[in-house]
Give the backbone structure.
Amino acid sequence: MRTHGYLVWTVWAICLATIFFLSACAGPKRPPSPQALPAENLPQIGTSQAAVLRDSPRSKILVNLIKKAEQQMGSGEPDAAFATLERGVGIEGQDPFLWHLMARVQLIRGNFDQAEQLAKRSTLLAHNFPSLKQKNRDIIARSIKLREAE
């Protein structure tokens, strides 16, 4: 009868050890790795992503940054305006208007090459904004004209 108690205790010990071992191996569930996601859900490297017409307005933060940059440009602070616009690009880098404003600031600063490049970037993103494309062409033309006059 003594061996029977020992046998029961041994079986329970083995069962508990197995349960603890299996629960330790399970671990928390992890999200699927990027390799497991379908390719169409991943961003494509080296492709330009077109600006999408917004169904919703810009975020309040972005609107405030744009207003602040325009005020800084109006009060003769192009360096501060450019820094403000860079913050905006960090929030929404696909907004063509931000790139356009950066081009305007560079034109004011006398950095004609930069103004031209930023206006071209804005134009690439402004697929559905013909008036912005025209403004960018104007900046490019002025940049070229002012660069040649130097």
Remarks:
- Helices lie at 2-26, 60-74, 78-91, 96-109, 112-125, 130-149.
- Residues 116 and 140 are 5 Å apart (CA to CA).
- The first helix runs from residue 2 to 26.
- The domain at 60-149 is CATH 1.25.40.10 (Serine Threonine Protein Phosphatase 5, Tetratricopeptide repeat).
